[in-house]
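Sample intake sheet
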Amino acid sequence: MATPDDAETLTHRLILPRDANHHWTLHAGVLLSLALEAAYATAYRAAGWHANLVLKRVLVIRCFEPVPIGRVVELRGREVHRARAQVVVALLGSPLVGRPTPWMDGLMQFVQVDEAGRPEPLGDEPDIVPRALDAPWSALRDRGLRLLTVRS
């Protein structure tokens, strides 16, 4: 289980020509796949070795600038909210070389399920998500909490 000291999960990926759209930048479908892998790894670390998580929904994915082929991207992930059987993970694309701001961000909700696929509690571990997160995680958590109120 992640602790407050190592709460972030880092994922790196080289953007190859097969990942590109007709503008030779990262294709949206590949971005979603990459984000889901990074978010699942983050949620799994947060839930612990016993995790049996499924994606409930993508709350939001925003891409702020195109990523050209040949670039290595870094996605940072962090658990920002936890309820009885769910974990909400925030993602942040570390700024590209020569740029001051993240290239993407996102939020995904995962649910712990039993063998029948029904939600089950995450366990008795204490809540490790701090009430006051540092920026940019606090803003992402606030956005996620607002989006959770919207029914899918």
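Comment: The mean pLDDT is 90. The helical segments are 28-47, 137-148.
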